[in-house]
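Input structure tokens:
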């Protein structure tokens, strides 16, 4: 069963079909099904009725807050080298100092909805909505809690962002690793897992992926792979958790591939993608603002979780972000993200040049087209077919040699050995990169000497 919605300002014969609300009931965890609205926050909308005198919420009187105004300067993306002044005062500041809506400030939500339409072609009448969180990590955790029961099987691309592994470990999930390569997630691996799933065993309901500049591999999934994954999601009744903090950090030569959130418009119906965005890499990591876009029934239960756990995302952080984004508008926002991606492209080039100088013949790597990471394989045993293990070398010997990085094993859900290393290129200067990779070169050569002696 699907629900058809006509797109305004489009061909009146074109319809976007969406999955009905009841479709999602089987995807919800037991805890999500048992959640009930907050007896206080559930009634907040009633305060908006004209003439109502509310004794409802225990909101402190903002007359007693000491802050009178906030003012800051920010870059002006359309005028390089110039800055713009942004201020918060009066009712806008009062909004930032007070308790707010569980899903986020309505104006900020509307701004993000407009961004999703411009970036992903998604209109607000297609059965999805948007909630703001304290960073996308907060929202991913709430999604997992809302969709996964203890012991459930889950599908995770591998290598995977290490920050989600503890979420699934805490629930004692069966983590089924879907292989990846330079073209992104291997849809053939995903199909093989699903086609060979034991008869009678409960099937996985979610697939987690980072499609642009993946942390740790730096890979960006091709459009062909994305389409194949979407087809498999429809065929095997999966929800795709599209974790995309590096969408605006794409610097590949080819046109940026469309997101899963956009590509699902090609499907017979929409509603199988839960998309996570973040401002951490483009505005401020410390503000902790992320937002999730997806089917309303899922976001509704995530909001119930928020209302119980932390009430809402920070009103003040949201108000600061909103003031800047409204000052900029969408054109300046895109100009800023273009400058951000160019900055990281230059950082990428510096790091790769140093890799060629210091680690040629000692490591293998692919060139990332987005994000902030190099993923490279150490060639520790030149005279053996055995791949080797980077863990001790990176955690102990490289650190003793003055280099800190992460061994590949920490990004593998099932903890097997790996010869790979993840290095972030976002902060270091060219001088620091060259010095660090020269130090790593010395460590690798010593290790190879031990292996052949």
């Amino acid at each position: 069963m699907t629900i058809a919605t006509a797109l305004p300002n489009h061909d009146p014969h074109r319809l976007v079909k969406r999955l009905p609300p009841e479709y999602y009931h089987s995807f919800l965890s037991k805890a999500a099904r048992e959640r009930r609205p907050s007896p206080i926050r559930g009634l907040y909308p009633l305060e908006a009725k004209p003439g109502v005198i509310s004794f409802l919420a225990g909101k402190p009187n903002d007359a007693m807050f000491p802050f009178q105004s906030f003012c800051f300067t920010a870059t002006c993306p359309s005028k390089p080298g110039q800055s713009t002044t942004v201020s918060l005062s009066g009712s806008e500041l009062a909004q930032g100092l007070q308790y707010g809506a569980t899903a986020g400030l309505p104006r900020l939500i509307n701004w993000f909805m407009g961004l999703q339409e411009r970036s992903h072609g998604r209109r607000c009448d297609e059965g999805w909505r948007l909630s703001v969180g304290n960073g996308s990590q907060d929202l991913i955790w709430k999604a997992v809690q809302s969709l996964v029961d203890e012991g459930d099987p889950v599908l995770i691309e591998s290598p995977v962002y290490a920050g989600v592994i503890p979420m699934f470990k805490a629930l004692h999930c069966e983590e089924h690793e879907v292989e990846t390569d330079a073209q992104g997630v291997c849809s053939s691996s995903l199909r093989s897992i699903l086609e060979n799933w034991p008869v009678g065993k409960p099937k996985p309901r979610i697939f987690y992926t980072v499609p642009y500049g993946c942390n740790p591999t730096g890979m960006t999934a091709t459009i062909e792979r994305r389409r194949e994954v979407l087809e498999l999601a429809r065929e095997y009744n999966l929800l795709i958790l599209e974790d995309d903090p590096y969408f605006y950090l794409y610097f590949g030569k080819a046109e940026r591939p469309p997101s899963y959130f956009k590509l699902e418009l090609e499907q017979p119906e929409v509603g199988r993608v839960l998309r996570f965005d973040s401002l951490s890499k483009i505005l401020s990591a410390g503000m902790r603002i992320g937002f999730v876009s997806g089917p309303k029934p899922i976001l509704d239960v995530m909001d119930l979780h928020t209302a119980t756990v932390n009430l809402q995302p920070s009103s003040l952080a949201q108000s600061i972000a909103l003031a800047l984004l409204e000052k900029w508008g969408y054109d300046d926002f895109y100009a800023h993200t273009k400058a951000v991606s160019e900055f990281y492209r230059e950082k990428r080039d510096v790091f790769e040049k140093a890799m060629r100088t210091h680690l040629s013949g000692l490591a293998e790597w692919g060139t990332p087209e987005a994000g902030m990471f190099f993923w490279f394989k150490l060639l520790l045993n030149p005279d053996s077919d055995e791949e080797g293990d980077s863990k001790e070398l990176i955690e102990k010997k490289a650190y003793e040699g003055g280099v800190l990085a992460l061994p590949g094993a920490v990004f593998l859900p099932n903890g097997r050995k790996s010869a790979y290393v993840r290095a972030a290129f976002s902060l270091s200067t060219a001088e620091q990169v060259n010095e660090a990779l020269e130090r790593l070169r010395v460590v690798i050569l010593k290790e190879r000497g031990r292996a052949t002696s």
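Residues 347 and 425 are 6 Å apart (CA to CA). The chain is about 35% helix and 20% strand.
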